[in-house]
């Protein structure tokens, strides 16, 4: 994951897109807090996954946003900071998919635009039972 994440950042920078990683591995407690957001606490719903049900809990997911020229974090999925007529957000998603990431923006039931994950063929159930990718799969 780390190698692919760094490669994503380098490829994006090469086309003048500054990507910021906003979240990586999460504790079960933090995942539960995010799950409660928009349900029992204030804010918008940001996840349908409780603690243990997210690839973030197993170090197999990252979230990203864009960084503007003034250093601000940009969550606008239509932002075109490199002025090439395409959404930087979608350009990053395409780069990530080329590297083997699954993009949450492609999901039908809950589009999670900042989310990228690699499951290495493992389901959440398998991860909950202690299975992990081999070092060859996840260098």
Structure notes:
A hairpin with a 5-residue loop joins β2 (61-67) and β3 (73-74). The model has no long low-confidence stretch (mean pLDDT 95). Strands 1, 2, 3, 4 and 5 form a five-stranded antiparallel sheet that branches. The protein is globular. The protein starts with a helix and ends in an 11-residue tail after the last helix. Helix content is 27%, strand content 14%. With 139 residues, the protein is α+β, with helices and mostly antiparallel strands.
Spatial shape: globular
Poorly predicted runs of 5 or more residues:
none
Count of individual helical segments: 4
Question: Could you report the average pLDDT, rounded to the nearest whole number?
Answer: 95
Q: What profile does the largest beta sheet have? A: 5 strands, antiparallel
CATH topology of the domain at 2-25 and 61-128: Muramoyl-pentapeptide Carboxypeptidase, domain 2
CATH class of the domain at 2-25 and 61-128: Alpha Beta
Distance between the termini: 7 Å
What's the count of strands?
5
Helix amount, in percent?
Answer: 25-40%
What is the string of SSEs from the N terminus onward?
Answer: HEHEEHEEH
Classify the secondary structure makeup into a structural class: alpha+beta
- Kindly provide the radius of gyration, computed on alpha-carbon positions and rounded to a whole number of angstroms: 15 Å
Tell me which CATH architecture of the domain at 2-25 and 61-128 applies here.
2-Layer Sandwich
């Amino acid at each position: 994951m780390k190698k692919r994440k760094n490669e994503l950042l380098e490829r994006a920078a090469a086309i003048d897109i500054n990507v910021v990683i906003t979240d990586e591995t999460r504790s079960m407690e933090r995942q539960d807090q995010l799950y409660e957001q928009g349900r029992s606490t204030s804010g918008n719903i940001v996840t349908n996954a409780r603690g243990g049900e997210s690839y973030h809990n197993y170090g197999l997911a990252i979230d990203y946003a864009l960084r503007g020229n003034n250093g601000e974090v940009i969550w606008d999925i239509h932002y075109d900071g490199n002025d090439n007529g395409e959404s930087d957000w979608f350009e990053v998603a395409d780069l990530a998919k080329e590297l083997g990431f699954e993009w949450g923006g492609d999901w039908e039931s809950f589009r999670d635009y900042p989310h990228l994950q690699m499951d290495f063929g493992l389901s959440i159930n398998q991860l909950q039972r202690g299975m992990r990718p081999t070092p060859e799969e996840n260098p």
